[in-house]
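Minutes, methods subgroup
Present: GH (chair), OT, SY

1. OT presented the first of two proteins processed in the latest run. Sequence and structure tokens recorded below as shown on screen.
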Amino acid sequence: MASKIDQFCALFKSIQFKVQKEPEKPVVSKQTLDGQNKEKVLIELNKALSRAKSEFNSAKKMHKHGKMSASELFDFEVRLQEIRDQINRIKEDDSNGFDEFEELGGEE
């Protein structure tokens, strides 16, 4: 039995169809994607860190002038530390991942 493409082409015998295959897409490994994702996350976290630093500095000035309570200032400081911790965790995971691969390679 002829395929649907052959049946379609048979309807138009006077026209020649040139069928081209799409070029093959490059194979992207999961490690490459993970590395790219980590880089993007680190870039965004660094941007958030710089924004949080400027907000914290503004909050310190407001607190100094009596326009903000100490607990509100503390919230800004906590957020700043949370972002730093997230960046450190990602960097540690990245360095620990390489150590695991090196250990596997050394055992073979």
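2. SY then presented the second protein from the same run.
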Amino acid sequence: MTFAISNLVLAVLLVGAAPARAWLPEGHMATGAIAYDILARYDPTALDVVRRMMESHPQWPSFRARLTDLAGADRTRRLFELMAVWPDEARGGVFDHDDWHYSQTFVSPIRHLVPQAFGGAEDAYRRNLVIARDPGASDAARAVALCWVIHIVGDMHQSLHAALWLGWRFPTSDAGGNWAWVRAAPGAAPQRLHFFWDAAGRTSGLSRGSPDAFVAQLEAARPFEAEPRIDNAFAAFDGWVRQARIQAFSDVYDEGRFQGGVSAADAPVLTAEYVARARRVGADAIAAAGNRIGALLLRLR
């Protein structure tokens, strides 16, 4: 069988294996809150632009209904949180683009034979960022594009939205951890590896509701002021995706030593060291995504 045919077979096998979402809703909300805090501090005019555009969003009534009890800065901050999670909530509707949530490549040794990416996140990021930054586009189009930019940046900081593993235990890939099972602690229920990392390595998930305390911890641990400047938004995104894939190999798959269960029944218990690393890496990834979203929105007009 030629490499071309092998690639086609792998592509067919991967259909339907796309991850459901990245981060729990609270993780995406945290990225939106961090981005809001950056604009509130460094570019309040951009906040006005976002508010104006969002009032033309095709689904603005849904946003507005969830903001009625808030006013002023609290209302706008919550709006950013809702924008970050909206593409997940839009699934199944006219704004659903399933393959925009991921761009995965193999990080196991097979990557040298099958180097291409599966998923459209990288192209979608570029196209939506151009629209979101175009003052000549309609506010409605810019609002939808902006929500997608925020969400895609968040998605691609979850390493399993950038990576797949293929090996003897998963001969058709682990679908970015969706077909690998683990237990976060002795006696814990089995869960998919992808979901465990969506929860940022937290055995009980992220906090519910507006993640204010979580956001404060992230901002203290990774302050925006220490982030490198983004000179080229396209090249920067490419670098973030590369780093996510490196982290998938080193931190998620433990440089090839990780062994997930092929079913819920044989899900192994993760070591305390692995869980602690996942918590640390997951939290840092959410903080980095929020900072980078904020940087992308500076000087938005």
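Chair's summary of item 2: The chain has one domain: 3-297.
Next meeting: continue with the remaining queue.
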